[in-house]
Write a structure and sequence with these properties.
Blueprint: H1 3-13, H2 20-30, H3 33-41, H4 47-51, H5 53-58, H6 70-79, H7 84-89, H8 99-111, H9 118-122, H10 129-142, H11 148-160, H12 168-182, E1 195-197, H13 201-206, H14 209-221, E2 225-226, H15 237-241, H16 244-261, E3 265-268, H17 272-286, E4 293-296, H18 297-306, E5 320-323, H19 337-345, E6 349-350, H20 375-392, E7 396-399, H21 402-414, E8 421-423, H22 424-430
Helix pairs in contact: 1-11, 1-16, 2-6, 2-10, 8-10, 12-14, 14-22, 16-17, 18-19, 20-21
Bound molecules: iron/sulfur cluster (2 copies).
Length: 441
């Protein structure tokens, strides 16, 4: 068992006995210079409130992004803020957060934050509020105050490799079905392949056609690729619950698979947070550089189109709007690629208001879709997306994140709307010129 796994298991034990003192200590540990600087920099302008979909739909001042940081700020000010010792001696320091307060703040730090970074984008002081929420979650998770659903999902991920318990036999079955569907062999555990594809559990269970779509795209573009039979899960519940140790323990499995198969690149699939976890946080979480390149599938599709390696036939005539996954676009930096890929398969793409880096989250990111008690608030947040869809006159949504896709489908259904939600990879595969040998077996 690696050190990460051992420490990750310790985090899970915390839920049995929530401990406010431990949370405060962890908040203080998190409040290093970079965090302290940001906590002191707020000028209370309120702009972050107007950027947050949860505040906009509820107008509840508790949903103001910077307000969600209150326990972190209190613990920091009490222990380490300017003149903290004097303030404590005079009885002027804020009290350390107690258990009742932390239980209350669990809903604010988890249910009402997608870690989407829209507040970060607008803060005139450059405060990364989403990043600070993530740091506050470290204290909450380590001390037993994270939502029970996220602890359970974390335990399943550590036990089975997947937050919803998807093991290799389930993926192997989906691969076999996609082989029958496409007539193509899907490579598994091929040593020395250029690319290793990992998948999110939501794709495996909810949208397995993406596997067949990848097989068709890579065959036409002559891409050397493989899927690992172990370490295939892309999602990382550790970054959502807010535990570096759980995140690192899960990342280790992907890195081990890539090293075992000696691949040059790992393709992060249609899953927003999986991309940021592996590409942007991976080396810091593991404490070493990754021995492979990380490429998000939308990036690769864009590259294959630009290199003329995909032969596309026809375009979708519907008014298609792209829903930008926050972790790919705003937080991940893929601001141009989805639009270029959309243009290759859509003749009638429409833009929703605040498209691109300013897009609103689907409402389910940052682990919110896994928190049962947050469902009502998540559906309420969809109201903004609904208005955007209506303003654009979109006839279908396209996205590049299976979690967004699932969350949008649920919210659309809850509103009684009929609006298809498509995956970008599958859409590209749909408009590929058929290959001669693609006859069904
Ligand atoms: S936008 Fe920035 S400075 Fe303004 S209230 Fe929010 S955190 Fe403070
Ligand atoms: S990260 Fe997104 S959901 Fe969280 S407080 Fe900021 S705007 Fe709101």
């Amino acid at each position: 068992m690696s050190d990460f796994v051992a420490r990750a298991r310790d985090v899970l034990k915390a839920r049995a006995a929530p401990d406010a003192r431990k949370a405060a200590a962890e908040f203080v540990a998190q409040a290093q210079r970079d965090v302290a600087f940001q906590l002191e920099a707020c000028v209370h302008c309120g702009l972050c409130a107007e950027a947050c979909h949860f505040y906009l739909v509820t107008r509840d001042p508790r949903h103001t992004p910077v307000h969600k940081l209150r326990p972190l700020r209190k613990a920091y000010r009490r222990a380490r803020g300017p003149f903290a010792a004097l303030a404590r001696a005079l009885g002027l320091a804020p009290p350390a957060p107690d258990a009742a307060e932390l239980e209350q703040w669990s809903e604010l730090l988890y249910d009402s934050c997608n870690l989407c970074g829209r507040c970060t984008l607008v803060c005139p002081m450059g405060i990364d509020i989403a990043g600070l929420v993530r740091r506050a979650r470290e204290g909450m998770a380590a001390a037993g105050f994270a939502p029970a659903d996220l602890y359970k999902a974390s335990e399943r991920a550590l036990d089975t490799g997947s937050p919803i318990g998807v093991r290799w036999p389930a993926l192997r079955r989906q691969i076999e079905l996609q082989e029958q569907e496409t007539g193509l062999r899907i490579p598994v555990d091929v040593e020395g392949a250029d690319y290793m594809v990992i998948l999110s559990a939501i794709e495996v269970i909810g949208f397995p056609a993406v596997i067949g779509a990848l097989a068709r795209i890579f065959r036409q573009a002559v891409v050397s690729w493989t899927i690992p039979s172990a370490g295939f899960e892309a999602t990382n519940i550790g970054v959502q619950i807010g535990s570096r140790d759980i995140a690192a323990a899960l990342l280790e499995r992907v890195v081990d698979a890539a090293e075992r198969l000696k691949v040059k690149s790992v393709i992060s699939p249609e899953c927003g947070h999986a991309y940021t976890a592996l590409r942007w946080e991976g080396p810091n979480l593991l404490g070493r550089s990754l021995p492979f390149k990380v490429v998000q599938i939308t990036e690769l599709l864009d590259q294959l189109v630009r290199e003329g390696r995909l032969r596309l036939r026809g375009k979708d005539a519907r008014r298609l709007a792209f829903h930008d996954p926050c972790q790919l676009v705003r937080r991940g930096g893929l601001t141009e690629e989805p639009g270029r890929v959309m243009d290759t398969v859509s003749e009638n793409a429409v833009r929703m208001p605040a498209q691109g880096a300013a897009n609103f989250c689907c409402g389910g990111g940052g682990g919110v879709s896994a928190i049962h008690r947050a469902e009502k608030l998540r559906f309420a947040a969809f109201e903004l997306k609904k208005r955007q869809v209506e303003q654009a006159g979109a006839e279908a949504l396209v996205t590049a994140c299976a979690n967004c896709r699932n969350v949008l489908e649920e919210a659309i259904d809850e509103r009684g709307m009929t609006l298809p939600v498509l995956g970008l990879t599958e859409l590209v595969a749909q408009y590929l010129e058929p290959e001669p040998a693609e006859a069904k077996p």
